[in-house]
Design a protein that fits this description.
34% of the residues lie in helices and 23% in strands. By secondary structure, the chain is α/β, with parallel strands linked by helices. It binds nicotinamide-adenine-dinucleotide.
């Protein structure tokens, strides 16, 4: 069956108009070639009015969390993008799939592998694609790390180092019920992803250590920082860290005859990199525009997204293994 979408630009509805939707996704959707901001889902009437004016969104394409399912009857909307706190991803992806629209879900995909399975099953059953908001797969510096890992210009990889931290955070991110955990869920996931896409391999086992808390009154519920190690096939090892009290954005791959390094590695723009041969030079791109355009193009061309739910589920499995290793002090093997 040919299920390609023949529209010139597919309509995206953003669900949850918080800082990522407002600061990154909506502006990116002004630059996209294959999709546009067609609708919004918000619990705030004030935000609904403001966005309708700012982005020329019709009242008929404006929804709240109660009438969300009516999107099923809206032919302007082809893709529903879930940009809510982590604990809400599973419920909203499943509700989105039931409308028959394709779905993008922000990272981390969910708080458990079981929820990821339910989300994947719901999308399969509805015959829609599920993509995870892994913007760095469409970013040239990180794509170069993937190429170096694959083509091995410096020989086989030996060691990866990756760190991602922010100097501060607040709100649902430090409430375990909503976030699933601390910086590992929010930022460390980028290091996990980077190790996976640089090596092109899956980790075999992990060990992990919680960092001492400098603000125990603030980080009551979740880790403030942590370090962890991952073993990959062929003896490749990864050393990673994440924190909510210091800015870090780093990825380095050491190979037999050289290295490649990005610093900053995971920011929205201004990435920089070098290898043992010299500096890496790529133009800044709008990562979110590239990510959403690729998904829209995948739907137009009838091909699978390169960042599917199964990829998100594997990161959730690795996160769970890292927490288990941190809590037990044991080496935890991954299937
Ligand atoms: P945010 O707190 O700024 O926005 C969350 C939105 O959800 C708000 O509009 C809020 O009103 C709404 N919401 C609905 N029910 C809520 C509830 N019960 N509690 C709290 N908020 C509720 O968060 P954000 O930074 O926009 O993050 C949203 C998602 O996007 C998260 O999953 C996050 O990991 C992800 N994210 C991804 C990137 C990326 O680079 N891919 C960057 C930032 C955030």
């Amino acid at each position: 069956m040919d299920n390609r979408n023949t529209k010139e630009k597919l309509g995206i509805a953003l669900v949850g108009l918080g800082s990522y939707s407002e600061g990154q996704l909506a502006p990116a959707l002004q630059q996209t070639a294959h999709c546009y901001l067609a609708g919004i889902v918000t619990g705030s009437e004030e935000k609904a009015k403001r966005w309708q004016v700012q982005y020329n969104i019709a009242e008929a394409n404006t929804y709240n969390y109660q009438n969300f399912e009516e999107i099923a009857n809206n032919s302007d909307i082809d893709i529903i993008y879930i940009v809510l706190p982590n604990s809400m991803h599973a419920e909203y992806v499943i509700r989105a799939a039931a409308t028959g629209k394709h779905v993008i879900c922000e990272k981390p995909m969910a708080l458990s592998v079981e929820d990821c399975n339910r989300m994947i099953d719901a999308c399969n059953k509805a015959g829609v694609q599920l993509s995870i908001g892994y913007r760095l797969h469409f970013e040239p510096f990180n794509a170069e790390m993937m190429r170096i890992g694959k083509e091995q210009p410096f020989g086989p990889l030996k060691k990866i180092k990756s760190d991602h931290g922010m100097a501060d955070t607040d709100g649902w991110r430090i409430e375990k019920a909503l976030s699933g955990g601390g910086p590992l869920q929010d930022l460390g996931i980028y290091c996990i992803q980077a190790c996976r896409y640089t090596t092109g391999m899956e980790p075999i086992a992990v060990t992990a250590q919680e960092g001492a808390k400098t603000k125990p009154e603030k980080f009551k519920d979740v880790e403030e920082s942590m370090t962890w190690q991952m073993e990959f096939p062929d003896g490749i090892t990864a050393e990673c860290s994440t924190t909510y009290v210091k800015r870090m954005s780093y990825l380095r791959a050491e190979a037999e005859r050289g290295f490649a390094e990005l610093d900053p590695a995971f920011d929205y723009n201004g990435l920089q990199g070098k290898t043992s041969d010299g500096p890496l030079q790529f133009a800044d791109i709008n990562q979110q525009a590239a990510q959403m355009d690729d998904f829209a193009l995948a739907l137009k061309e009838g091909r699978p997204t390169p960042v599917p739910g199964e990829m998100g589920r594997q990161d959730v499995a690795i996160i769970q293994a890292i927490y288990k290793a941190m809590e037990t002090g044991q080496r935890v093997e991954l299937k």
